[in-house]
């Protein structure tokens, strides 16, 4: 009798073990553990920056800090290993309409830097307009800046005491779309570039660039700052530039810093 009971116990143990195995397999197949995510996860905030009337001492109105901003260019020096580089000394953030494309007798900004808005988490509301004065290209070599650069880019020499925003000396950008970059916290920007160069009339081309937001921070407990960095590339041959010393593609980097002083 004891022998029979032992055999019966063994059979029951085997049946229970098999049932447990079946249950565990069914559980695994029905509810697989979630796969680990390897995609980028954005960490954007909700900051909104607007120029308003750019009133001094109004902390809700952001002003371009031109002194600490820059518009840089670079291109390979054809036939050599190094880059040709420079900056534009005069630039701004204004929608320069045809009526405003004149020379201004002033040493400061000829137009308010107020044609922009930035929404950190709503890129569809973000926009900006910008311009450079072509004849203020500064390579650090005066002979080149006042010589071949002026003629090669189809503009005129600087006139002391004026800001030249005429058609032959003005390159303008205007955003048409700003959207999230799916691979980073940055933004993809579609914009137009309008410039006459050595053509007989201004040409507008569409370019895609990348915008980086340097988040708002406080300086000494007295005012806030933030930055926008825009990078894009264009083909200078589209604008009639034929110099054999430079490559077709010109890289542009705009580093714009703002404060609410």
Shape: globular
The termini sit apart by: 98 Å
Overall pLDDT confidence: 89
Number of domains: 1
Report helical residue fraction: 10-25%
> Could you name the CATH homologous superfamily?
Lipid/polyisoprenoid-binding, YceI-like
CATH architecture: Beta Barrel
* Number of beta-strand segments: 15
- Quick one: CATH class? Mainly Beta
CATH topology-level fold name? Lipocalin
Rg (C-alpha, Å): 30 Å
Order of helices and strands, N to C?
HEEEEEEEEEHHEEEEEE
Number of helices: 3
Which band does the percent of strand residues land in? 35-45%
In the predicted model, the low-confidence regions spanning at least 5 consecutive residues are 11-31
Major pleated sheet: 13 strands, antiparallel
Briefly, what is this?
The chain has helices spanning 2-30, 142-145, 148-152, and strands spanning 48-49, 63-64, 70-76, 83-88, 91-92, 103-105, 116-119, 127-133, 137-138, 162-164, 170-180, 187-195, 203-219, 223-235, 249-259. Strand 13 and strand 14 form a beta hairpin.
């Amino acid at each position: 009798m004891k022998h029979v009971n032992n055999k019966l116990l063994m059979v029951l143990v085997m049946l229970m073990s098999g049932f447990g195995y079946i249950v565990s397999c069914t559980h695994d197949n029905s509810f697989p553990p979630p796969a680990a995510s390897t995609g980028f996860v954005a960490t954007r905030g909700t900051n909104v920056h607007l120029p308003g009337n750019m009133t001094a001492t109004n902390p809700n109105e952001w002003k371009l800090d031109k002194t600490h901003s820059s518009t840089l260019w670079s291109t390979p020096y054809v036939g050599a290993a190094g880059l040709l580089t420079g900056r534009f000394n005069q630039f701004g953030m204004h929608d320069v309409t045809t009526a405003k494309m004149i020379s201004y007798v002033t040493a400061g900004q000829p137009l308010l830097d107020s044609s922009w808005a930035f929404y950190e988490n709503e890129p569809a509301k973000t926009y900006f307009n910008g311009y450079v004065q072509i004849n203020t290209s500064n390579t650090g070599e005066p002979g080149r800046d006042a010589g071949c650069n002026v003629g090669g880019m189809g503009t005129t020499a600087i006139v002391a005491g004026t800001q030249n925003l005429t058609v032959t000396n003005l390159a303008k950008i205007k955003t048409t779309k700003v959207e999230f970059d799916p691979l980073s916290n940055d933004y993809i920007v579609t914009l137009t570039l309008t410039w006459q160069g050595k053509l007989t009339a201004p040409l507008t081309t569409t370019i895609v660039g990348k915008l980086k937001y340097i988040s708002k921070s406080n300086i000494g407990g007295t005012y806030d700052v933030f930055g926008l960095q825009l990078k894009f590339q264009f083909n200078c041959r589209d604008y009639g530039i034929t110099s054999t010393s430079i490559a077709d593609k010109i890289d542009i980097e705009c580093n714009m810093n703002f404060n609410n002083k």
